[in-house]
Amino acid sequence: MPKSQYMDPNVLRAPGYVEFENIPVNQYKKTIKQEMKNFSNEDFVRIYRDMAIIREFETMLYAIKTTSEYNGVSYNNPGPAHLSMGQEASSVGQAYLLGKDDYIFGSHRSHGEILAKGLSTIEKLDDKELYDIMENFLGGKTLKVVEDKQKSVKELAIDFLVYGALAEVFARETGFHKGLGGSMHAFFLPFGIYPNNAIVGGSATIATGAALFKKVNEKNGIVVSNIGDGSMGRGPVWEAMMFGSMDQYKQLWDEAHRGGLPIIFNFFNNLYGMGGQTCGETMPYNILARVGAGVNPEQLHAERVDGYNPLAVIDAMRRKIKVLKEKKGPVLMDTLTYRYTGHSPSDAMTYRTKEEVEAWQEQDSLISYKNKLIEAGVAKEEQFAEIGEYVTNLITKTCKMASDETISPRMDLYAVPDQIESIMLSNQSIEKMEDRPCDVLMPMEENPRVQQIAKKERFAFDANGKPVSKNKVFQLRDALFEAIIDRYYKDPTLISYGEDVRDWGGAYAVYRGLTEAIPYHRLFNSPISEAAIVGSAVGYAMAGGRAVVELMYCDFLGCAGDEVFNQLAKWQSMSAGLLKMPVVLRVSVGSKYGAQHSQDWTALVSHIPGLKAIFPTTPYDAKGLMNAALNGTDPVICFESQRIYDVGEQFHEGGVPEEYYEIPIGEPDIKRKGNDITILTVGSTLYTALKAADELQEKYGISAEVIDARSVVPFNYDLVIESVKKTGKIVLASDACERSSILKEFASNITDLAFDYLDAPPVVVGSRNWITPAFELEEHFFPQADWIIDAISERILPIPGYTATHNFTDGEKLRRAKLGV
Amino acid sequence: MATPVIMPRQGQSVESCIIGKWHKAVGDTVAVGDILFTYETDKATFDEEAKEAGTLLGIFFEEGDDVPCLTTVCAIGNAGEDISALKPAGEEAEAAPAEEKKEEAPAAAAAVVAAPVTAERKDNVFISPRAKALAEKHNVDYNFANGTGPNGRVIERDIQAMIDAGLMTTPAAAGNYDSSITGTGIGGRISLNDLNAPAAAAAEAAIPEAEFEEVKLPTIRKVIAKSMHTSLSTMAQLTLNTSFDASNIMQYRSFVKDNMERLGLANITLNDIVLYAVSRTVLNHKDANAHFYDDKMVFFKNVNLGLAVDSPRGLIVPTIFNANKKSLNDIATEAKALAKKCKEGTITPDEMSGGTITVTNLGSFGIESFTPVINPPQTCILGVDTIETKIKEVNGEYKYYPAMGLSLTFDHRALDGAPAAKFLKELKQNLENFSILLAK
After folding, report:
1. A448-506 pLDDT tens trace
2. Nearest to B43 among A509, A592, A802 (CB)
3. Are residues A811 and A756 in the same domain?
4. Residue B96 and residue A466: Cβ atoms within 8 Å?
5. Which residue of the set A597, A607, A780, A806 is catalytic?
6. Which of A389, A411, A433 is a domain's end point?
7. Could you give the CA distance from residue A813 to residue A805 in angstroms, rounded to a whole number?
8. Contact check, Cβ <8 Å, A757/B133
C-alpha cells in the first residue's frame, strides 16, 4: 500500500478495453540449414546423444519396473518411476543453453530434465571444475563407483551423472542424496539441478523463491520451474505466477533491483494430468499458453513451443533467456510434448487410444530429429548407431552398478541407526548466509522505532513493583522487532515478506519501523498468496538465503499446507542434509475474530517431522528465541499470540537485555516456582495459568509451579519431569482445541517418563472441540483460570470445600468423545 | 461550546491507541481537515483530522500515551472556553496491581483430609503410583488408606496423612497383618517390644516346641505401634499426676445408677463424668484443646473428645464431636455407642477423626498412675486412674476419702508445665464440685 501510487478514479473509471497481443503457437519454422549458424555438427549430434541417453535411461527403468530385468541385469525396484519417454526433445532443448548458474526445478516426472541439464552443464564446465565437483561430492563416494582413469573427465562426468541419478532412484547411499529423495525428488546442486518435487506444481513457488534469491542478491543465472500441464489446476501454481509477477518488482524496487524475476514457468505439456485430459476434459484453457495473458500486461511473454523438436525449444529458450536478462520476466512456456508410457507403470491407459499413442510415436522426436540431421548431411546413420551402442552400454553398466548391493549399498540403519535422525534438522548456528555488506537505508541507531524503543522500560514493573504502563513498556512485539532488525544488519541475505509487512508494519506492528530502514527488495508486501509466501521462502533458502516470512493468522497455515508440511519440513532431510532451510515462518494466533481467525495449530506443525516450532510468550523469550531461530539453519514456525503482543517482561530479572542473546529452542522455562502441582502451558495460556496459580495459593493453599513450554518441537522434558517428580501432579493448558492438541503429546510422554511419580494422570485443559465463537462468548471456549482449578479438583486433587462449575468428570469426557465434540 | 475530539476506534479489536505525534499545539488555530495528531494502533498509524474549526483548547494526552478508544483526546472551540468538563476522568490512573493480601493462610489442600484410615482393610484399592511409592517407602498399609482422590483413589496426601498420624509399621513388620498380638504397653497399646516380641520369641522357641505362640500382627496393631512410636519419638511428652476427691462424683453416679430408669438417663459412668468435666474445662485452656504442627498451632473453638477404646482389634480412638455442647447424658450415651461400634468394628473413619483432646481410662484395671501417649497432632491426653482410698486432714481430723488419679500427658512443644498444671487443677476442682459444674 505505498502512498506513492495514486489510484486515480478519473483514470480508473474511464472506459476502454484490455488489449492482448497474439500468443505464438508452434511458430518455429527454421530448417537445419538455417540453424547451422547456431550449432556445429557436434552440437547437433550431441543434442541427439543426450536425448538418446534419456530415452534409454527411461526404457531401462520401464523394463526394470515391468519385467524386473534389463539387458541381463535383474532387479526389482519397488519405488516409483514416472517416466517421460517421448518428452526427451523438450528437456534436452530446454537445458541446451543452461549452465550451472541456471537452476531448474522439476516435477515427479523429471528424470529427463535432470539428465539433460546435467549433460548440458558438463559440456560447459572445464575439466578441473568438473572433476573438483565430482571429487568433493559426498566425500567422493559417488565418484569412486564410476572412477575410470581411462576416460576423459567429461566422459567420466556423464557416467557420474547417470549413475548418481539412478542410484538415487534405487535409494542407494551413493545416490545424489544418499537415496533419501528417490525418483521424484532427485537433484544435483553443483550442476544447477534443484529438487524435483512429488507434489504436482510443487516446484512453482519454490522456483520463484530461487529466482527471488537471484534477484535480491544480484546473482547470475535464471531459474526454470518445470511443472506439468496438470499443475495449472493447482492454486499454488497460480500463486507463484502472481507472486513472481508482482508490479512492485518493476515499479517500486530500487534501481539496482528493479525488474521482473528471472524465472520461466515452464509447463511440459504432455496433455495429461495423470489420466485427466487437460485439453478437452479437466482444464479450460484449450491452449495452456493462453494463461499468460491473464497474468500481466506482458502476458508473461507466453508461447507454445513444439517440444517434439529440440531446436524449436532451444530457439524459444534463447529468446526467453534474453527477456529475463532484460529484466522483463517472468516467462511462461507451454512446451508441448507427449509421453508414451502411462503416468506410472501401473497405468492401464484407459483414457487414450492406442492409435493416439502410435500417431505420436510415428513423429517420435529422436527418429524425426535424426532423420533431419541425416537429411541435412550433419551426420551419418553410422554415427547414430555408435551413439546407440554407447548409450546402451552406459545404461546397462550403470544399471548393473546401481542395482549391486556391494557397489551401491543402501544406508545401513542397523549399523548407524541415527543416519536419518541426524539429518532431520541441521541445528547449525550461522550468523550470516553470505559475507558482504547489508543493503539498508540508514544506520540502525537512526531508526525511529529503535529510538522509540530506547525510551521504553525493559521490565514490566518499576522499582516499587508497580506495573509500567503499556505504552512505556518494552513489549513482546518490540522484542521480535529487535531480533529481526538486528539480523537485517548482520545477514545480507535476510529478507522478509508477507501480507502488509511494509508500510503497514505488519498487522500487529512487529515490523513497524522496518520500512524506513530496509529497502524494498529485502522487505516487501506479498500478494495474499500464503502458498507462495512459504513456498518461495523454501526456494530462497535452498538457493542460499535466509528468510523470515509471515502468515497473518495461524489459520492460514492450511492455505500453505503443502508448502509448510511437505516442502519447508522435508527438504533438509530429503536432501540428506545437503540443503539447509534457514526459514522462520511467523504465524499469529488470533482470538477475537471467530472460527477462522483464532486457532492454535501447534499440533499440526509438531506432527510433521522436520520442523521446529516455538511459541514465545514473554518479551525476553521472544527476543531470545527469535534470535536463535534467525541464527539457525532449520525451518522454525514461530507462533505468536495476538493476545500478548503488548505484554512487558514480567519474569526475567533485569528485564529484556539490550544486547544480543539466544534462548535455545526446545527448553521450557519455569515462570513461577511451586511445590504442590505443576501447570505446563503453551502460548498465552501462561497468563491464564498464573491467574489460576494465584487463586490456588490464596484460597486453597496449593502452591503451583507454572512452566511455559516456550518451544513445541524440539522439547526437552527434563525440567517438566523434574517438576512432576516433585509435585506428582500436572495440568497442561493451552488455547488449542483439546482433542489431539500438542498437550496430549506432552501428557502422554510425561505419563511415560514419570509414571511412578504421578499422583494422578496428567490432565489436559484445552479449548472446547468447537468452532471459536464470537469474542463475547470466548470464555466458554478458551480455557479460563477456573477451568484449570476445576480440572485439578475434579481429576487430580479434590479440594475440600471447592465446587467445580465445569464438568470434568469421566462421564462427560466419554459423552463428548462419543459425540465427537 | 467546545467540541471534544475522541480517540477513534479503528476496528473492533482495537481497545486503545498510542498518540504518535501532535501536529497542533494548545492555542493553535485549527481548520477543518488539519491533522491534529497521529495515532497508532497495533497495526498501523493514522492521521486524525479536525472535523471542526476553532482553537485547540486543550490536549489531554501526550505523545506516546496509550489512550482507550472513544476517550476524549483534545478539545476544539473558541478561545477562552472552559473545557474542564471534557477532560477525561482518571486519565492518570494506571491499573494498580490487584494484589490483595489474604489475612490468614489457607489450609493446604494438598494435606487436608478427613480420617487417615478406614477401619476395614480394603481389597482392590485404587492408588496412584506416587501414593503407592510413598506408602512403600514409609511402610504404610495403603489398604487402610482413606482415599480422597478422584473416584476414591488413594493419592499422595492420603498416605501422607497416615504417615503424619504415625500409622506406619516397621519394615520388618510390614505385610504381617493377618493376626494379632496383645499389646503390653500402657492402656493395651502396643510397644516396640511387643512388635519385636513375636520375632524374638520365635527365635527363642526354636528348641522347646510349643512354648510360644507366634502370632502375625494385624494391620491395626502395626498402625498403632507405629503411631505410638512416632508420637513418643517426635513429641516432647511429659506427664503430670494428681488425684482428686471423688466423693462428689461417686455420689452422683450412685444417684443416677439408682434412678436411671425412672429418670430416663443412660448408665452414666465415672468416666463419662470425667469426659463431661474435661469438655467443660478445657476450653479455658486453649493450648490443651489444640493441634500442634511444626510451624503453627490450631486452636479449636469446640471440644472434640477423643475416647480411647480397647477393642478386640486393638486401641481405637473414636470422637465425641462438640462435647462441650452436649449434656452429660448425651456424652454418656454417645460414648457407649461409640465403644460398641469399636468393639463390633463398625466404626467409620469419620467417627475416628478430628479429636482435639483425648481421654483414656485404665482405672478399671487398677492402674494408679501412668503415662498416656498423645495422639498427634493433639497436645494433651488425659489418663484416668483407679480410685484409691486416701486420707486427708479436714478441720484437724483425718478423713478417708476416695481419690481418683488423673495423669495428664502434654506436649511440651505446645505448652509449658504451668499451663498444663492449671488445666489439671481446674479440672480437679470441677470434678470435686461436680454438682456445681453440672449446674453451670
Report:
1. 999 999 999 999 999 999 999 888 999 999 999 999 999 999 999 999 999 999 988 88
2. A509
3. yes
4. yes
5. A597
6. A411
7. 15
8. yes
Strands (E), A211-279: 223-228, 263-269, 272-273, 276-277
CA A639, CA A662: separation in Å to the nearest integer?
A: 17
Closest partner CB to A471 (pick from B66, B109, B110): B66
Cβ within 8 Å, pair B151-A700: no
pLDDT score for A223: 98
Asked whether residue A25 is assigned to any structural domain, the reply reads no
- Per run of 10 residues, the mean pLDDT along chain B (length 440 residues) is 86 77 91 90 77 90 85 90 81 44 51 62 86 90 89 92 77 42 34 47 46 69 76 86 91 86 85 92 91 86 90 84 91 90 80 89 88 90 92 86 92 90 92 87
Same domain for A617 and A675?
A: no
> In this structure, are A393 and A465 located in the same domain?
no
| Measured distance CA(A235)–CA(A551) in Å, rounded | 17
- Domain-located, residue A152: yes
Distance from the first to the final alpha carbon of chain A:
42
Residues A518, A239 contacting (CB under 8 angstroms): no
Q: Is residue A277 part of a domain?
A: yes
Cβ atoms of A163 and A398 within 8 Å: the answer is yes
A162 and A305 together in one domain: yes
* CA-based nearest distance B324→chain A, Å: 25
CB within 8 Å: A758 and B66: no
Range of lowest pLDDT (A148-152, A617-621, A765-769, B188-192): B188-192
Q: Does A433 touch chain B (CB under 8 A)?
A: no
* B223 vs A306, higher pLDDT: A306
Which CA distances in Å does A100 have to A54, A194, A220, B4?
19, 11, 10, 68
Contact yes or no for B149 and A757 at CB 8 A: no
Q: What is the CATH number of domain B3-84?
A: 2.40.50.100
* Residue A537: CATH number of its domain: 3.40.50.970
Q: Please report, for chain B, the start and end positions of each structural domain, with discontinuous segments joined by +.
A: 3-84, 129-222, 236-439
| In a shared domain, residues A581 and A692 | no
Query: In chain A, which among 461-520 make CB contacts under 8 A with chain B?
Result: 465-467, 469-472, 477, 504-509, 512
Q: Which residues of A touch B133 (CB under 8 A)?
A: 756-757
The side-by-side arrangement of strands in the sheet containing A763-767 is A669-672, A704-708, A677-682, A730-737, A763-767
For residues A753 and A633, state if they share a domain: no
Put simply, the answer to whether A701 touches B106 (Cβ < 8 Å) is yes
Say whether the peptide bond before residue A236 is cis (omega within 30 degrees of 0): no
Residues A683 and A632 grouped into a single domain: no
A13, A35, A433, A525 from A8: Cα distances, Å: 8, 50, 43, 21
Is A540 a domain residue? Answer: yes
Alpha-carbon span A108 to A83, nearest angstrom: 9
The answer to whether the CB of A441 falls within 8 A of the CB of A517 is yes
Task: Give the domain extent around A576.
Answer: 444-644
B300: closest CA of chain A, how far (Å): 19
Q: Are A165 and A82 contained in the same domain?
A: yes
A contact test, residue of B46, B156, B159, B298 with most A CBs within 10 A: B156
Residue contacts between A and B (CB atoms, under 8 Å): 104
Interface residue B153 vs chain A (CB under 8 A): yes
Instruction: Give chain B positions within 8 Å (CB) of A693.
Output: none
The residue from B42, B47, B82, B416 that is catalytic is B416
**Count of domains forming chain A:** 3
- Kindly report the nearest CA distance between residue A733 and chain B, in angstroms: 20
B229 is catalytic: no
Contacts of A281 (CB under 8 A, 6+ apart): none
Q: State in words which class domain B236-439 has.
A: alpha beta
Task: Give A247 to chain B, closest Cα distance, Å.
Answer: 23
Contact B42 A508 (CB under 8 A): yes
Q: Does B20 touch chain A (CB under 8 A)?
A: no
